[in-house]
Write a structure and sequence with these properties.
Keywords: Membrane, Transmembrane, Transmembrane helix. This protein has seven helices and no strands. By secondary structure, the chain is an all-alpha fold.
Length: 208
């Protein structure tokens, strides 16, 4: 391996580790804000906002999973050009990135996520109180279904949707995280084209 290639791999590994640390910083900061019910969007002047936003809901795991999942999704689309700046400039830009992403998460959470599930909750209540013939037939043979739709279905659906979003975001970010952890533990990136020794010998014997 040439020295230039080793240098490029070293720089790539350092970027992966830096991105991993920054992702952990984002998740920790967002968890701290969500846990204490602090919202970046509420720190701004409400008169300057384009629309009137609803009040935040009480703390729940669904909100935490959705906010962290959305934050991880946004972190994957961070501009790569910022990595070329000097360390001091990059740290200042990182603070700006943190503020912008947390603002976007709060705005989506309060203006899209909560209103959407409020409509979904009303639809489940209407379905639980429906008097249609097919609904009466189902509720007759499943007497607890109507009560579940009215009381518990909304919270179950919201938790499943939030957890699914979070797991998908973690899965998409796990590839780079795995490489960063490998570099931290092994001191080098795993070779993508590495072939196991037994398989290599088998290929050599077949070639002969």
């Amino acid at each position: 391996m040439t020295q230039l290639r080793m240098r490029r791999m070293q720089m790539r590994a350092e970027e992966l580790v830096r991105d991993f640390y920054e992702s952990m910083l984002l998740l920790t900061l967002d968890l701290l804000l969500q846990w204490n019910q602090w919202h970046v969007i509420r720190m701004l002047n409400a008169k300057k906002l384009p629309d009137e936003l609803p009040e935040p809901q009480a703390l729940n795991w669904s909100t935490i999973f959705f906010a962290n999942g959305l934050l991880l999704t946004l972190a994957q689309y961070r501009p790569q050009r910022l990595k070329r700046y000097a360390p001091l400039v990059r740290k200042l830009l990182l603070l700006l990135e943190l503020f912008v992403m947390l603002f976007v998460v709060d705005y989506v959470l309060l203006s899209i996520w909560q209103p959407f599930f409020n409509i979904f909750d009303q639809a489940l209540h209407a379905l639980g109180h429906s008097k249609w013939a097919w609904a009466k037939f189902i509720f007759h043979y499943c007497p607890g279904l109507s009560t579940w739709l009215i009381n518990d279905a909304f919270y179950f659906m919201r938790f499943v949707a939030s957890l699914s979003w979070f797991l998908l975001a973690v899965e998409s970010a796990a590839v780079k995280w795995r490489l960063a952890i490998d570099f931290l533990l092994l001191g080098q990136l795993p070779q993508a084209n590495a072939v196991p020794r037994s398989r290599r010998k088998r290929h050599q014997s077949n070639g002969q």
